[in-house]
Design brief:
alpha/beta, Trna Endonuclease, Chain: A, domain 1
Length: 228
């Protein structure tokens, strides 16, 4: 059950982030360059000496052999691989852990000038956009942890879909298990928060789930409340 994470795992000590996609980590006394699979700021996670876990890539053509996958926070593990949220949600839908609608699940479906993560194609067409929340404060998952015009445009496209008679959902997947509810991080991106509120008022369903995190597997644990 859940999404399996392939590859060798190893514990490391975080040193510093060099840019959006690269960081230095110490593994068994050696300083190595690794890939950071998240464009967010992650300032509360990627702290000097933080315990991290990396996954070895099987791609010999990659510049970096290791991917920084998990960061240990006081309360537990946080997965920072934001692209993996789609795979975790897809696994949960296919395993019937969560039910979002009836029909055939399709990935990356174009709609006007946008592309949504999923479409449930049945008697009703349900467009779904997925966002990965890695920021936590006082037991609250928040998104985004960096300003995102792209994310706001996705919400506006969901509003457009509803106005044309389709169903639409935006789902925030919290990549940790120690949060109780979700709220937009308005102090980081007020425009995103305002657009999300407008989307809910227009009929876009806003959902959030927390995950059970293990080094070899991530799965949806349960739904958490949303406060907008």
């Amino acid at each position: 059950m859940g999404y399996k994470i392939p590859g060798e795992k190893v514990e490391g000590r975080f040193i510093k982030r060099l840019n959006r996609f690269e960081a230095l980590v110490e593994i068994e006394g050696k300083e190595i360059l690794c890939h950071v699979p998240n464009t967010g700021r992650l300032r509360e996670l990627l702290l000097p000496d933080a315990k991290v876990f990396l996954v070895k890539s099987g791609n010999k053509n990659r510049k970096t052999e290791w991917t920084l996958m998990f960061v240990e926070k006081d309360k537990g593990l946080v997965c920072i691989n934001s692209a993996m949220a789609n795979r975790v949600l897809e696994s949960a839908i296919k395993e019937n852990t969560i039910k979002l609608g009836n029909g055939v699940l399709k990935r990356e479906v174009s709609f006007y000038k946008s592309k949504f993560d999923f479409l449930i194609d049945g008697e009703e067409k349900i467009f779904i956009e997925v966002k990965c929340a890695t920021f936590e404060e006082n037991g609250i998952a928040k998104f985004p942890d960096a300003p995102t015009d792209r994310g706001r445009r996705h919400i506006e496209a969901l509003i457009k879909a509803v106005e044309l008679g389709y169903k639409a959902k935006i789902i925030f997947v919290a990549f940790m298990d120690f949060v109780n509810h979700f709220t937009p991080y308005k102090e980081m991106d007020e425009k995103f928060a305002i657009t999300l509120r407008r989307a809910k008022e227009k009929g876009v369903e806003v959902l959030a789930y927390r995950c059970r995190i293990a080094l070899n597997e991530i799965n949806i644990k349960d739904r958490i409340t949303v406060e907008i």
